[in-house]
Specification:
This protein is α+β, with helices and mostly antiparallel strands. The protein has helices at residues 6-21, 31-35, 98-107, 148-157, 182-192, and strands at residues 116-117, 133-136, 141-144, 162-165, 168-171. Strands 1-2-3-5-4 form a five-stranded antiparallel β-sheet, sandwiched between helices. The chain is rod-shaped, with a radius of gyration of 36 Å.
Length: 193
């Protein structure tokens, strides 16, 4: 049975129910006759409401499902209550971690005030840079990438305001590091790897 014939079948079922209900005072008439559960010898199709089709009667009543037939429900997409954890790419073997770089700056007597692990910004919910680690300080920001090519691409974007050594990039864009002090940070980073 096609979807086009369903409105016609629904009208036919309602008409037969109305005709069968005429003249018998004990039997319900109209839509109540359709929903009554009287046993039949042949199975009747379960009809579900369908959108109006061109050419169908706009006054035909919708036929509800039979009393024992389950209502048809659309499936609901279930989403997890929290997003899955972001898995960041690993830094390359031998490359120093961002915290290790900050500790080396501190050990060399360089200022790294207010360090904050911002590695979450590497992932798609943050800046989406594809880095492995970020530690931001008020003096500079240290980025560690999974490879030197990715680090080079970002350092080129920040040209003049960054320094790259391998997979590690020092960013001075939002920092308060005087230009004269930057070579000292870069020398410490060059000594790490």
């Amino acid at each position: 049975m096609t979807h086009r014939s369903l409105p016609a079948v629904a009208v036919l079922v309602v008409a037969v129910s109305l005709i069968a209900g005429c003249g018998d005072g004990d039997r319900p008439t109209g839509a109540a006759a359709v929903t009554s559960s009287t046993p039949t010898t042949s199975p009747s199709p379960v009809l579900s409401p369908t959108p109006s089709v061109a050419g169908s009667s706009p006054t035909a009543p919708a036929v509800p499902p039979a009393g024992d037939a389950p209502a048809v429900q659309e499936s609901t997409e279930r989403r997890p209550s929290s997003p899955p954890p972001v898995v960041l790419p690993r830094r390359p073997a031998g490359a120093p971690g961002a915290k290790q770089v900050i500790d080396a700056f501190r050990a060399a007597g360089l200022k790294v005030p207010n360090p904050r692990d911002r590695s979450v910004d590497c992932g798609p919910d943050g800046l989406g840079l594809g880095c492995s680690e970020i530690v931001a300080t008020d003096a500079l920001t240290v980025y560690v990438f999974p490879d030197a090519t990715s680090a080079s691409d970002l350092a080129d974007t920040w040209s003049g305001q960054s320094y790259r050594r391998g997979a590690v990039v020092l960013n001075y864009l939002a920092a308060r590091t005087p230009a004269a002090d930057r070579p000292r940070y870069e020398k410490v980073l060059a000594g790490l790897g």
